[in-house]
Amino acid sequence: MIVCRNKFAVEEAARYIYRMKRIVFFIACLQWCCLTGFSQAPSATPAQKTIRNQLEARSLTMAPDLMADQDPAGAGFSKERLARIDELLKGYLSDDEIAGVSALIARNGKVVYQKAFGYSQDAIFRIASQSKAVTSVAVMMLMEEGKFLLDDPVSRYIPEFSQVRVMKKFNEEDSTCTTVPAKREVTVRDLLTHTSGIGYAVIGSREANAIYAKAGIPVGFEARPLKLADKMKILAGLPLMHQPGERFTYGLNTDMLGYLVEVVSGKSLAEFFRERIFEPLGMKDTWFYLPEEKAGRLADVYIEDASGKSVPMPRTGPAGYDRDYPLTGSTYYSGGAGLVSTAWDYAVFMQMLLNGG
């Protein structure tokens, strides 16, 4: 992997990842619910054990109602006004601002607009950080089953978190730093809310970029045959960027949550997603690494040239990773960035959230 070691390279990598996200439009309305932890009794009564067993057995048993090609008027939309979206999206393409668009609008389970321009309607996209929502759902499923509480220390499940330290002073010359002890342990809630103090590799602060590069921590788009467990154990032993709970820092928290899912469930993150989320919801086109029969549907990646026009991205992008990582059949299941999906599959996932799970 090519590591960004100066300010300008880091800024270019951040701009590149932003541009990638402009390739595909997911137009949807998403409703989130705030969930809080609960107190756990010292020992479970028979009734409590029965309830826990029922929760463990419960899963997403059927795809939520999402009806395609519905009359816009029946969902409160104007067909004429929706048609304006066509011209808007076509305009982006004709101006070479983007290479393709997949757009979907749904309301109350009724799909009133689904079109694609530049790409096929069933194109599979690298959905990057939209992977985080799927991982967070997996975490909440396990929490609901009583496998852990939101305010549990992560070290209870990932021992490498037991001696957490926080960066005090960073040395740019050799990427070392002085540290102080953390005032408290990192909790599951900290990871979910990105307040743990974990930063991001490649697109994070200059301190995080340097420290994580030196330790070999990936950003999440990975073609090499790495294992999530190996890298997350290393990450857990690295200094935090700030004290736990002190502030929000967008980072590799959701990758760590993916590893937590693996530890608690006893399955790889890919297996857990497939068995507990994707298959029950009928999300047949959402994967970490695509099976061979779906490889031809993977959308091409474009970047902007100096004039702001969209041009094909070379195999190795500005951030240093392999453009074709979803086709490599690798083993690094990044809960923060690794999934590929279609507009339809992701709309099904979001409709599940709107339906209350």
For the largest sheet, list the strands in their spatial order: 1-2
Uncertain spans, ≥5 residues at pLDDT below 50? 1-45, 54-59
Order of helices and strands: HHHEEEHEEHHHHHEEEH
Number of distinct beta strands: 8
How many DSSP helices?
A: 10
DSSP helix fraction: 25-40%
- For the CA atoms, what is the radius of gyration? 21 Å
- Please summarize the sheet with the most strands: 2 strands, antiparallel
Average of the residue pLDDT scores? 85
The global form is globular
- The fraction of residues in strands falls at 5-15%
Termini Cα gap: 38 Å
Q: Would you tell me the structural class of the helices and strands?
A: alpha+beta
Fold topology:
Layout: H1 7-22, H2 46-57, H3 79-94, E1 101-107, E2 110-117, E3 125-126, H4 131-144, E4 165-171, E5 176-181, H5 188-192, H6 206-215, H7 228-236, H8 253-265, H9 269-281, E6 302-304, E7 310-312, E8 340-341, H10 343-354
Antiparallel strand pairs: 1-2, 3-8, 4-5, 6-7
Helix pairs in contact: 4-8, 7-8
Can you offer a commentary on this structure?
Helix 7 (228-236) packs across helix 8. The protein is 34% helix and 11% strand. The chain is built from 10 helices and 8 strands. Mean pLDDT is 85; it is low at 1-45 and 54-59. Strand 4 and strand 5 form a beta hairpin.
